């Protein structure tokens, strides 16, 4: 008998498009890689955004960027023919990291059917907590103190708190939470930036990250949700609105309950595809390696419909891609 619980993915999100989308993140990562360690954050961001938009516009789709960073990566993308898709993206997740040659800089794109992504107001933050598929539904709760949260996750995983590793952004706003986690006995990995990779790492056992906690960009929260949905992970988020202007922005965007907690299905309805390419090495991917006349890139491609996780290594010949061969 057929499995009545299986909902087939829309044909628009087939594996062929997923492999095309990873070429988009490869293009932006390669462009950004030329600026790694040069101290030019804006130049790196601009180069990556321009490469990403050019690559997106070559895809046979009617795409609309609903959550993205920067004017270069907003509005309509694609050839205008083909499936109608909503896109969330960031050409560089961690532009400062890229400029400093730090860890965890990524280029990321996620795509789904129109109307499926939670559309968050630009420039606002989210509280976030994320874990992998080995944590049962209902365990994560933003309203619980950090020490209670790590204890619940440890109990759900059947391990002592001392064996847990929590990832969070290294920010002054997290000082109290960090102290509570230390007091509970868990380890903490502090990252300079790149909370998309930090959250997604919880769904990849080989990273050693059990839990992601803290606040960061709302658009990045939606990207992380897309990746975790492909991995079968867990996530809960809530808008972190710091003043009346941001609360007004949220209301104008259609948010009526400003204290509402969102889970993965609230943030990404239905099936989704996700692609990321490392710019610098981090928890989930190695970065771009440049050599004379070419480069090697490392990417992650996932589809929620099948749960397939592909890690791809590609060698690029710049002699055939003249634009990428131009040094800053």
From TrEMBL:
<dbReference type="GO" id="GO:0006071">
    <property type="term" value="P:glycerol metabolic process"/>
</dbReference>
<keyword id="KW-0119">Carbohydrate metabolism</keyword>
<protein>
    <recommendedName>
        <fullName>Fructose-1,6-bisphosphatase</fullName>
    </recommendedName>
</protein>
<comment type="similarity">
    <text>Belongs to the FBPase class 2 family.</text>
</comment>
<dbReference type="InterPro" id="IPR004464">
    <property type="entry name" value="FBPase_class-2/SBPase"/>
</dbReference>
<dbReference type="GO" id="GO:0005829">
    <property type="term" value="C:cytosol"/>
</dbReference>
<dbReference type="GO" id="GO:0042132">
    <property type="term" value="F:fructose 1,6-bisphosphate 1-phosphatase activity"/>
</dbReference>
<keyword id="KW-0464">Manganese</keyword>
<keyword id="KW-0378">Hydrolase</keyword>
<dbReference type="GO" id="GO:0006094">
    <property type="term" value="P:gluconeogenesis"/>
</dbReference>
<dbReference type="Pfam" id="PF03320">
    <property type="entry name" value="FBPase_glpX"/>
</dbReference>
<dbReference type="GO" id="GO:0046872">
    <property type="term" value="F:metal ion binding"/>
</dbReference>
<keyword id="KW-0479">Metal-binding</keyword>
<dbReference type="GO" id="GO:0030388">
    <property type="term" value="P:fructose 1,6-bisphosphate metabolic process"/>
</dbReference>
């Amino acid at each position: 008998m057929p499995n009545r619980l299986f909902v087939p993915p829309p044909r628009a999100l087939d594996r062929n498009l997923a492999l095309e989308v990873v070429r988009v993140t490869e293009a932006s990562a390669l462009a950004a890689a030329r600026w790694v360690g040069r101290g030019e954050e804006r130049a790196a961001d601009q180069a990556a955004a321009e490469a990403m938009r050019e690559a997106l516009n070559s895809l046979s789709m009617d795409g609309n960027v609903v959550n993205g960073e920067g004017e270069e990566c907003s509005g309509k993308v694609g050839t205008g023919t083909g499936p109608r898709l909503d896109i969330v993206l960031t050409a560089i997740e961690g532009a400062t990291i890229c400029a400093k040659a730090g860890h965890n800089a990524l280029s990321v794109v996620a795509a789904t059917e129109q109307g499926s992504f939670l559309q968050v107001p630009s420039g606002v933050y989210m509280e976030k907590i994320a874990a992998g598929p080995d944590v049962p539904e209902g365990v994560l709760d933003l309203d619980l103190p950090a020490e209670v949260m790590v204890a619940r996750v440890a109990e759900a995983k059947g391990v002592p708190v001392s064996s847990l590793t929590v990832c969070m952004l290294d920010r002054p706003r997290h000082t109290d939470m960090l102290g509570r986690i230390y007091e509970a006995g868990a380890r903490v990995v502090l990252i300079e930036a790149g909370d998309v990779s930090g959250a997604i790492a919880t769904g990849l056992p080989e990273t050693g990250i059990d839990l992601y906690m803290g606040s960061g960009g709302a658009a990045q929260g939606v990207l992380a949700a897309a990746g975790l949905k492909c991995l079968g992970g867990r996530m809960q988020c809530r808008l972190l609105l710091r003043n009346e202007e941001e609360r007004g922005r949220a209301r104008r965007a259609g948010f009526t309950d400003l204290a509402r907690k969102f889970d993965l299905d609230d943030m990404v309805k239905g099936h989704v595809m996700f692609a990321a390419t490392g710019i610098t090495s981090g928890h989930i991917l190695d970065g771009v390696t440049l050599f004379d006349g070419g480069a090697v890139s490392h990417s992650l491609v996932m589809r929620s419909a099948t749960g397939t996780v592909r890690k791809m290594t590609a060698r690029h010949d710049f002699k055939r891609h003249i634009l990428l061969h131009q040094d800053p």
